[in-house]
Every structure is written in structure tokens, then in C-alpha cells.
Amino acid sequence: MSIKYEAPGLSWQGFWAICNQLFPSKPQYTEKDYPNLDGKVVIVTGASGGVGYEVTKSLLGSTNAKVYMFTRNKERTIEAIKRIEIEVATEYNKTDLNVETISIDLSDLSTIKPAVDEFLNKESRIDIIIHNAGVMEPPVGSVSKQGFELQLGTNVLGPHLLQKYLDPLLIKTSHTNKSGETRIVWVASSGQYFSPIGGVHYEDPNFTNTTNASQMQIYGQSKALNVLQAKGWNPAHPESSNIVSVSLCPGALLTELKKDATPFQAFMFRSLFHPPRLGAYTELYAALSPDVKSGDHIECFGKKTRARYDLEEPEVVTKGWNFLDETIKPYL
Q: What CATH code is carried by the domain that includes residue 46?
């Protein structure tokens, strides 16, 4: 039976958010403002390319944090580290890099606990995690290892399960940090504006029987859920109010997320989009700025805004969070 997708129209809020991505203000919070992060441990997912690569490079070049690159392709990660070493030496005049790698595939939930176990065998703290990895508009019908729609599986369920496994150590670490130093950064997108009201197509979240939804709308659901994750983490952990959970839209960026674009789309992207390094400033503003509070939503290239209004309603946040908890329960 075919299920109809009820698509909301693009609101003025969404229109202006997209315009801001194309014509953003310059980043104000940059390397000169970052804390030194002595003794801190940071995880960046999807760190071997795109914005994740730039975030990792900036952290290694401008702070003393130990950075864990959680990535899918080991060979590509080794090459990324070689490039980072060269670029950090050139751009930051620094050669002593504190970086580790752990293999994980967020589209395969069976890889997540082994990755976390490896991390926990090496570390006794985690101060910041940046859920950066993701996919955008893959070929129609793409699914994760467990059979979930690929963007739902990779962008949302994988990070949700990863965070569940890391929560105990994150909460423990927060007790040794000042309030707000311990953070969870969920990388969303202006794609949230194309999701259904309430963020989730609950009748058919994998879009198995829904034939009238566009790829952007399916992607948009995953990004709306990232917003709900950011807003739902603290209410689900009321004992940990000193931890900041925040979502963001990194900006309209030239990254590998666009690898499946048509030739015309690729031309438009090259004409209008921005280098991924600018997106790193958005993510690091969310991860490090003292001005950021839990539940905030950040836009390019490092300033506060609001998520789509309905995604900020407490009942919507709770429903989305409970949906994710129930979905990953069999994999805990």
C-alpha cells in the first residue's frame, strides 16, 4: 500500500536560512579564540574528509587536545593524517600532533560497540564529541547494513547508538569539567526545513512504501532528527545539565556529500557554495565557544539562530527521541 508524504511548504524561516547559507557573515570565532584544551579528548566522526578533516586539522593545529578520528576507511584515514601533518606544520607551525584513529561504519550498527570498546580501552575520559559524519541524497533505494533508509541509518541511528555507548564516560568526565566544557555536537542542516511537520515521517520512516517524497525530503528527515537529538539529550539525562548538547547547520559547502549530484547541480554548487574550512568554524564554534548553551542551534559560520519552530516544541522533541531510542534498542 502506498503511503502519501505530507510535505510542508518552505517557510520564510527556511527561505532565509538557505539565503544565509549562500551569503553568510564571516566567522568571528576562530583559532585565535579557541581554548588550549590541555588534557581534553575530542572525537570527530567522518574526520578523513570534508568538514571533519578541517575540524580535525584545526583542533590539532590550534589546541592541545587529543583528537580521535572515527572513520570508515582506514587507508583513506592514513592518507588524511599525512596531509594533516604537512598542513599543520605549514599553517600552524606545529609538528607534535596528538591524534588517534578508530574504525567505525555508522551505516552498520554492528561496528559501533567494537569501536567504542577500542576507545574505552585507550581512554578514561571524553570531553567533546562532534557527530560530523553523514551522507546526503544517495542513490534511490540505498539502505544501511541493517536495512534502514541509508540517511536515517548513517546520519541518525548510527550516531544515536554511538552516543548511547559513550554517555557513561561523557557524564563521568563532565563531573571533572567546568559547566559547559563537556559537549555533544550534532551536525544537522537546513535540510530540516524539508522534513514533515514534527520532523519524522512516522507512518513510514524508511520511505519503503512512500512514493511521492523527494530525495531532499528524505534527507531532510534525517537532519530534523539531528536537531531533535540535540534538543532531546538533556531532557533524557536530567542529571547532566552541565553538558551542552547543540545542533548546527555548517553552511552550504563544497564537500563529498555532493558526490551524487547531477552535472547541473555540481555546476551550481561550485558557483555558490563555500570551502569546507568555513564549515569547520561553525562546528568549532558549537564545540568550543563559551557563548553556546545547551539546546542552541548554530548557523554558518558560527552564530546562534533557531531550528524550525515545530522542532523546538517539547512534545515533538520527546516523540522523536523516544522513536530513536526504541529503534536502536535491539542493537544495544
A: 3.40.50.720
